[in-house]
Design brief:
This protein is mainly alpha-helical. It folds into two domains: 30 residues, no CATH class; 39 residues. The chain is built from four helices and no strands. Helix 3 runs antiparallel to helix 4. The protein is flat and about 45 Å long.
């Protein structure tokens, strides 16, 4: 069930929810291809490494980028 505010983004008062609703107007669905599994793996690893303090956000993003690129190239 959609909330009424999501049907009318101009009526949403919360700026974060408004931005999400507006982004949905131009969003493209993610492709349903096996390569996306590589993206989720790299992204999940990055989030874990940052949240546990093992890497900075930039270090984790760089590592995830390399991990995803390598995984996709191997497919």
């Amino acid at each position: 069930m959609l909330l009424p505010g999501f049907l009318c983004p101009e009526k949403i008062e919360d700026p974060d929810l408004k931005a999400i609703a507006e982004a949905g107007n131009v969003a493209q669905p993610m492709p349903n291809i096996p390569a996306m599994n590589s993206v989720w793996g790299g992204q999940g690893d990055a989030i874990t490494l940052v949240s546990t303090g093992k890497l900075t956000p930039q270090e984790a993003a760089d590592q995830a980028q390399a991990q995803v690129s390598t995984a996709i190239a191997g497919q």
